[in-house]
Amino acid sequence: MRLWDNAGALKRINSSLYLLAAVGLIAAAVMWMMNSPYFPVKLVKIDGDLHRLSATQLQQTAQRHIRGNIFKADLNEARQAFETLPWVAKVEVRRIWPDTVQIRVEERQPVARWEGGGLVDSEGKGFDAPTDENFPVFAGTPGMRKMMVEEFIEFQAILAPTNLKISRMDYSSRSSRELTLENGIRLHLGRADAQDRLRRFVRAWHEILQERAADVQYVDLRYKDGFAVRYKQGAANEDNNSKQQPQSGGHD
């Protein structure tokens, strides 16, 4: 049987040709829209709770990397460009029909300066950014940053009733903790039960230490149920070393 005598086959061929033609028209329409001058990006909208990133800097970055019409603009390139800005933690870029690109920026929240250079954000990530702001100093190994941020927030909350602030946190390679307060007093917390030991200091602060705060050099809280106080040289009417509520003698 010849093909033109097979009505079913001819019908299927016609349907396929119509389908191919439709696909071709759609593809041509898409290409035309992507290259058309009739759909330009007219507005770049930048949202976010921003304090350290300037609107000018963000707009200049957007202008350099968001080009062409709304369909052809390379949003992935724009997102990567924003992520290179020092104060940017996260960024989301999306198209809003018919002519807007929306950029949502999450700014880094600095918590501390890292000894040796750079800052540490609220996620425990190190980064470099220019700032004259005063932050506590963290000293340790880079892998400890996240833990140090989490414990800094805990420690500062525990100290809140005393109105004392942490100016420095030192963590040894074995996670032994030492805090330096803004008044210069050092607190040796050791490796274990750091939060409970700091609470013990808070109780002692209100009961006996606050009155002699100017004379205190450091407080060693590594004893099981007590602590030792070292006073500064020349502190009057007080032994240079005194131990409060001694128990079991050893510490970690």
Structure description:
A ten-stranded mixed beta sheet has the order 6-5-4-7-8-9-10-11-12-13, covered by helices on one side. A three-stranded mixed beta sheet has the order 1-3-2. It contains five helices and 13 strands. Helix content is 32%, strand content 26%. Helix 2 runs antiparallel to helix 3 and helix 4 packs parallel to helix 5. It has two domains: 65 residues, membrane protein fhac (Ubiquitin-like (UB roll)); 124 residues, 3-Layer(aba) Sandwich (Rossmann fold), CATH 3.40.50. The longest helix has 29 residues. It starts with 6 loop residues before the first helix and ends in an 8-residue tail after the last strand. With 252 residues, it is an alpha/beta fold. About 2% of the residues have low confidence. Its main location: membrane. Essential cell division protein. May link together the upstream cell division proteins, which are predominantly cytoplasmic, with the downstream cell division proteins, which are predominantly periplasmic. May control correct divisome assembly. It is a single-pass type II membrane protein.
